[in-house]
Amino acid sequence: MSRLAKTRLSPAPLPSSLARCLVALCALLALIAVPRPARADHPAVGFGSGIAGPIITIPAYTLPAGKWAASARVEHISFRTFSDSELVRLAQNGIEAHSTRNVTSPSLSVAYGVSRTFTAAARLPYVVRQDIREGHLEGTTAVAHHHGDSRGFGDITLTGQFLVWDRERAKVAALTGVKAPTGRTHVADVEGERLETEHQPGSGSFDFLEGISGSARVPFGSLDANLLLVLATHGAQESTLGNLLHYNVAVSTKVSGAHEHHHAPGTPPHRDPTVVGADLILELNGESRAKERVGGITDPNSGGNLVYLSPGVRFGTGSWSASLSAGFPVVQSVNGTQHETDWRLLGGLGMSF
Fold first, then answer.
1. In this structure, are residues 7 and 261 in contact, taking their beta carbons and an 8 Å threshold?
2. Which residues have C-beta within 8 Å of that of residue 240, sequence separation ≥ 6?
3. How would you class 127 by CB atoms within 10 Å of its CB: exposed for 0-12, middle for 13-18, buried for 19 or more?
4. Which of 209, 261, 222, 270 lies closest to 63 in space, CA to CA?
């Protein structure tokens, strides 16, 4: 079946203990990147303020106490779709595969510095899936069924970031959160039939987020990495979309603008609010999803592992930023028969106040 202290930082070598920790984390990321069972047609999980640091990787910096941040971003994922004839051929062989042309997801986020060591945030996405098609048998005849598009508000995500280890040039934060089932789960196709849960804007499930992030100042700029596990629970139409592991690492370097500085321990490095600066960012963004289950039955054509190489740029001052990231798959291993990801583009605007 188909289922779908305002001190300027000067370059200095990392302490040997921190360097060993970062090497160990990178090694762990490399091990995780070995192809395993992720559905790639879901937008990335949003986390943090969206004002500074890497674009997708979650840095360990928290907002200053009493500080607000708001951001808007748009993520677009394009897929290598199956043609109608391929869907028909697969259906003739007993494989009811599906194909989606692209997913576009604008979202709004807001974050607040509850204390120097704790930032709370919320994110609300809108999800659009275009040209959903599926091959299946009608009696003994294989056909390619055009479902049309799916669109609507997705599930809201509430997150918390706790600064648990704080040094002048390195930070570690614990990540936690919950995705609540606020999104649409009853979108119908062009014939009025309810789409399967994997094609809905919302999942109908409470999902729980737990993870860790680390940030370090290095001679060429900054190094950030994070692990984030999303534990999926039972959702709409007896579906469980599968646990999801995000693993990311990013290097960033300033190429123009004022030097960065800190106002308080634990706060993110920032610039003179009157001078526009630019950072070049290079990330490896991985996501590994387990197979989904529908009605107690595991879908063999679901789950897998995907790693993007994501160059990006961020422009901004101390109070606003604009970012753009392009993602290109370098590792892509899917279970069974699924379309693959072609590319991803993510742009965002953010401000703090």
1. yes
2. 205, 232, 233, 234, 292, 293, 294
3. buried
4. 270
Judging by beta carbons within 10 Å of its beta carbon (0-12, 13-18, 19+), is residue 353 exposed, middle or buried? exposed
Residue showing tokens 């951001």 = 71
Phi-psi sector, 49: left (phi>0), alpha (psi -120 to 50), beta: alpha
Rg (CA), the chain: 21
Would you give the end-to-end CA distance of the chain in angstroms?
A: 50
Position 76 pLDDT exceeds 70: yes
pLDDT surpassing 90 at residue 50: no
Q: φ and ψ at 35, to 5 degrees?
A: -50, 125
At 185-206, the pLDDT tens digits run: 999 999 999 999 999 999 999 9
Cα–Cα distance for residue pair 78/100, rounded to 1 Å? 9
Query: Is the distance from CB of 339 to CB of 314 less than 8 angstroms?
Result: no
Of 49, 1, 3, 72, nearest in space to 237 by CA: 3
Strands laid side by side in the 297-298 sheet: 239-240, 293-294, 297-298
Bridge-partner residues for 334, per DSSP? 304
Distance separating alpha carbons of residues 166 and 175, to the nearest angstrom: 15
Tokens representing 29? 């990321």
List the one residue out of 157, 228, 234 whose CA is nearest residue 203.
Answer: 234
pLDDT (average), residues 262-274: 55
Residue type, 311: P
Do 69 and 111 contact (CB within 8 A), yes or no? yes
CB 344 within 8 A of CB 308: yes
Rounded to 5 degrees, what are φ and ψ at 265? -55, 140
What would the pLDDT profile of 94-123 be if each residue is shown by its tens digit?
Answer: 898 899 999 999 999 999 999 999 999 999
User: Which two structure tokens, joined as six digits, stand for 55?
Assistant: 């674009």
Residue 274 per-residue DSSP state = T
- Cα separation, 225 vs 53, in Å, equals 11
Task: Say if CB 235 and CB 186 are below 8 A apart.
Answer: no
Query: pLDDT digit string (tens) for 326-345?
Result: 999 999 999 999 999 999 99
